[in-house]
Specification:
Length: 156
Protein backbone atom coordinates (compact mmCIF):
# COMPACT_ATOMS: atom_id res chain seq x y z
CA UNK A 1 0.00 0.00 0.00
CA UNK A 2 1.38 3.38 -0.93
CA UNK A 3 0.87 5.98 1.82
CA UNK A 4 -1.00 9.16 1.10
CA UNK A 5 0.36 12.63 1.86
CA UNK A 6 -1.55 12.75 5.16
CA UNK A 7 -0.55 9.33 6.47
CA UNK A 8 1.67 8.37 9.36
CA UNK A 9 4.06 5.43 9.14
CA UNK A 10 4.10 2.84 11.89
CA UNK A 11 5.89 -0.48 12.39
CA UNK A 12 2.95 -2.43 11.01
CA UNK A 13 2.60 -0.30 7.91
CA UNK A 14 0.71 2.93 7.51
CA UNK A 15 -1.78 4.48 9.89
CA UNK A 16 -4.01 6.22 7.42
CA UNK A 17 -6.02 8.58 9.62
CA UNK A 18 -5.66 12.03 8.13
CA UNK A 19 -3.16 14.25 9.89
CA UNK A 20 -5.14 17.33 8.93
CA UNK A 21 -8.54 17.97 10.46
CA UNK A 22 -10.98 20.42 8.99
CA UNK A 23 -12.03 21.62 12.45
CA UNK A 24 -9.30 22.66 14.89
CA UNK A 25 -9.31 20.93 18.25
CA UNK A 26 -9.51 23.12 21.35
CA UNK A 27 -6.56 23.12 23.73
CA UNK A 28 -9.01 21.91 26.37
CA UNK A 29 -8.90 18.53 24.59
CA UNK A 30 -5.51 17.99 26.30
CA UNK A 31 -6.06 16.61 29.80
CA UNK A 32 -2.37 16.02 30.59
CA UNK A 33 0.95 14.98 29.04
CA UNK A 34 3.39 12.08 29.13
CA UNK A 35 7.11 12.16 28.43
CA UNK A 36 8.73 8.80 27.76
CA UNK A 37 12.48 8.68 28.35
CA UNK A 38 14.05 5.78 26.39
CA UNK A 39 17.30 3.88 26.86
CA UNK A 40 18.83 0.83 25.17
CA UNK A 41 22.14 0.10 26.89
CA UNK A 42 23.54 -0.04 30.41
CA UNK A 43 25.30 3.29 29.87
CA UNK A 44 22.10 4.95 28.60
CA UNK A 45 20.16 3.47 31.52
CA UNK A 46 22.56 5.17 33.95
CA UNK A 47 22.11 8.47 32.15
CA UNK A 48 18.32 8.01 32.11
CA UNK A 49 18.23 7.31 35.86
CA UNK A 50 20.38 10.36 36.59
CA UNK A 51 18.03 12.44 34.43
CA UNK A 52 15.08 10.97 36.34
CA UNK A 53 16.59 12.22 39.61
CA UNK A 54 17.17 15.66 38.11
CA UNK A 55 13.57 15.82 36.89
CA UNK A 56 12.21 14.84 40.31
CA UNK A 57 14.34 17.47 42.03
CA UNK A 58 13.00 20.24 39.76
CA UNK A 59 9.42 19.46 38.75
CA UNK A 60 6.16 18.42 40.43
CA UNK A 61 5.48 15.40 38.19
CA UNK A 62 4.64 11.73 38.50
CA UNK A 63 7.64 9.52 37.79
CA UNK A 64 6.55 6.11 36.54
CA UNK A 65 8.32 2.79 37.00
CA UNK A 66 11.48 2.08 35.09
CA UNK A 67 10.80 -0.60 32.48
CA UNK A 68 13.96 -2.46 31.46
CA UNK A 69 12.26 -3.95 28.42
CA UNK A 70 9.72 -2.66 25.90
CA UNK A 71 6.22 -2.27 27.35
CA UNK A 72 2.89 -1.37 25.78
CA UNK A 73 3.31 0.52 22.51
CA UNK A 74 6.91 1.46 23.32
CA UNK A 75 9.64 -0.29 21.32
CA UNK A 76 12.45 0.31 23.82
CA UNK A 77 13.06 0.25 27.56
CA UNK A 78 11.89 3.47 29.18
CA UNK A 79 10.16 5.26 32.01
CA UNK A 80 7.24 7.65 31.86
CA UNK A 81 6.89 11.11 33.34
CA UNK A 82 3.26 12.24 33.70
CA UNK A 83 2.56 15.94 34.11
CA UNK A 84 -0.19 18.51 33.93
CA UNK A 85 -0.77 21.03 31.17
CA UNK A 86 0.58 23.92 33.27
CA UNK A 87 3.96 22.17 33.70
CA UNK A 88 4.54 21.72 29.95
CA UNK A 89 5.94 25.24 29.37
CA UNK A 90 8.82 24.80 31.82
CA UNK A 91 9.40 21.06 31.76
CA UNK A 92 9.59 20.38 28.02
CA UNK A 93 12.10 23.17 27.23
CA UNK A 94 14.20 22.03 30.21
CA UNK A 95 14.08 18.48 28.86
CA UNK A 96 15.14 19.72 25.41
CA UNK A 97 18.28 21.19 26.96
CA UNK A 98 19.01 18.38 29.41
CA UNK A 99 18.03 15.05 27.80
CA UNK A 100 21.71 14.06 27.49
CA UNK A 101 21.26 12.59 24.01
CA UNK A 102 18.46 10.24 25.09
CA UNK A 103 15.41 9.72 22.90
CA UNK A 104 12.27 11.30 24.34
CA UNK A 105 8.64 11.15 23.24
CA UNK A 106 6.27 13.81 24.58
CA UNK A 107 2.59 13.40 23.79
CA UNK A 108 -0.68 14.89 24.98
CA UNK A 109 -3.38 12.80 26.56
CA UNK A 110 -6.64 13.38 24.71
CA UNK A 111 -9.49 10.98 24.02
CA UNK A 112 -7.54 9.49 21.09
CA UNK A 113 -4.43 7.64 22.31
CA UNK A 114 -3.58 6.46 18.81
CA UNK A 115 -3.38 9.97 17.39
CA UNK A 116 -1.62 11.18 20.55
CA UNK A 117 1.23 8.70 19.98
CA UNK A 118 1.36 8.90 16.16
CA UNK A 119 0.15 12.31 15.06
CA UNK A 120 0.33 14.66 18.06
CA UNK A 121 3.73 13.38 19.20
CA UNK A 122 6.81 15.52 19.83
CA UNK A 123 10.08 13.59 19.45
CA UNK A 124 13.50 14.59 20.73
CA UNK A 125 16.27 12.51 19.21
CA UNK A 126 15.57 9.32 17.30
CA UNK A 127 11.96 8.71 16.24
CA UNK A 128 11.01 5.20 17.36
CA UNK A 129 8.24 2.94 16.13
CA UNK A 130 5.04 2.79 18.12
CA UNK A 131 4.27 -0.92 18.50
CA UNK A 132 0.76 -2.18 17.64
CA UNK A 133 -0.60 1.33 17.16
CA UNK A 134 -3.88 -0.14 15.94
CA UNK A 135 -4.43 -1.47 19.47
CA UNK A 136 -4.42 2.01 21.01
CA UNK A 137 -7.90 3.39 21.77
CA UNK A 138 -9.30 6.14 19.58
CA UNK A 139 -12.21 7.22 21.79
CA UNK A 140 -11.42 6.81 25.47
CA UNK A 141 -11.45 9.00 28.55
CA UNK A 142 -8.52 11.41 28.46
CA UNK A 143 -6.02 10.64 31.22
CA UNK A 144 -5.91 13.34 33.87
CA UNK A 145 -2.56 13.95 35.52
CA UNK A 146 -2.00 11.75 38.57
CA UNK A 147 -0.89 13.43 41.79
CA UNK A 148 2.83 14.26 41.65
CA UNK A 149 5.12 11.86 43.48
CA UNK A 150 8.05 14.28 43.55
CA UNK A 151 8.92 17.14 45.87
CA UNK A 152 11.02 19.61 43.89
CA UNK A 153 13.72 21.44 45.83
CA UNK A 154 15.60 23.03 42.92
CA UNK A 155 14.56 25.60 40.32
CA UNK A 156 14.65 24.44 36.71
Amino acid sequence: MRPGPNSVHGPDGVYSAPMIRTTPQPLAAIASFHAHIYFDSAAQREIALALREQIGARFAVTLGRVHDRPVGPHARAMYQVAFDVATFGNFVPWLMLNRQGLTVLVHPNTRDQRRDHLVHALWMGEVLDIVDADGLPTDDEAELPPPPNTQPTLAP
